[in-house]
Amino acid sequence: xxxxxxxxxxxxxxxxxxxxxxxxxxxxxxxxxxxxxxxxxxxxxxxxxxxxxxxxxxxxxxxxxxxxxxxxxxxxxxxxxxxxxxxxxxxxxxxxxxxxxxxxxxxxxxxxxxxxxxxxxxxxxxxxxxxxxxxxxxxxxxxxxxxxxxxxxxxxxxxxxxxxxxxxxxxxxxxxxxxxxxxxxxxxxxxxxxxxxxxxxxxxxxxxxxxxxxxxxxxxxxxxxxxxxx
Length: 230
Hints:
Strand content: 15-25%
Order of helices and strands: EHEHEHEHEHHEEEEHHHEE
Number of strands: 11
Number of domains: 2
CATH class of the largest domain: Alpha Beta
Strand order of the largest sheet: 2-1-3-4-5
Oligomer: single chain
Largest sheet: 5 strands, parallel
CATH topology of the largest domain: Rossmann fold
CATH architecture of the largest domain: 3-Layer(aba) Sandwich
Structural class: alpha/beta
CATH superfamily of the largest domain: Response regulator
Number of helices: 9
Shape: globular
């Protein structure tokens, strides 16, 4: 089935270039120039993936608001920020809002296409049918159901993004074993900056803490990475 992509970019020429680029790759693509029209489109039908700029017309942080709204509708739709803003603060803000990736507009087109393909590959892998024994992973109070794209802690839904699901899955496969940033990037099927992985981990921890204020299951190991405490 053809994958659908929504591109939200207020500069018409840039938007049309990206729409053309992804259409030629065989995707079903729609472009929107402002937050309001994109929000209306999301309410009608969610895309398989969204690419958002941050500044939208007279809204400097319109893309952040749009990301927040989209995440309230679905924790699993992959979201990529594609923006001219390259500050660490903006990147961290975008990831904390639930984006799966953050790229600046000077990124090469092959790399952009590769990031999109990686996100689709991960969602497809999580939805692929396999024996139940391989689909459900239980570690203490944690239950991961890859087939259903669900993660529960003490019976409550964590509402993880696709990237968070893969990172958590990698951590809990071998409790007590340290997973470095490179290994977690491999699990997420992408290459990102070290700080990006750190931001995903911080957001992941917060989701546990919302359910369990005493949660300490994800431990930082200085200079090495992270591990799931036994």
